[in-house]
Amino acid sequence: MNRIHLIAWAGAFVPFMAIDLVWLGIVARDFYAGQLGTLMAPKPRWAVAIGFYAAYCAGVVLFAVMPGIAEGSVLRSVVLGAALGALAYGTYDLTNLATLRGWPPLLSVVDIVWGTTLTATAAGLSHLAVRSFG
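RESULT FIELD:
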């Protein structure tokens, strides 16, 4: 991993994790708890969560940020980030909706919109971090 990739990864990881923690822990906490009920763990498994954020942000860099950097277009990074977010969160939520008894359809809709928005935002911020510090 070279310096640019590290800046891009950190530029995605830090805001992605911070924004998602505010969303899940404050803004939408009651919504997720109400939708998931007893499926929701009483406390997050932080090692697993951080592992997800680290790996997912590597994917954001690979599939959204670096193509945008190559084209010199932050908009390209944002659009590719949105597509990746819709695909990744859609895969998770629609699989759960298709296979789990009682999975709430509203949760899937909200979570897909959230994942699309968050991934697009992280990709754009990562691109800007590379422009500023790369």
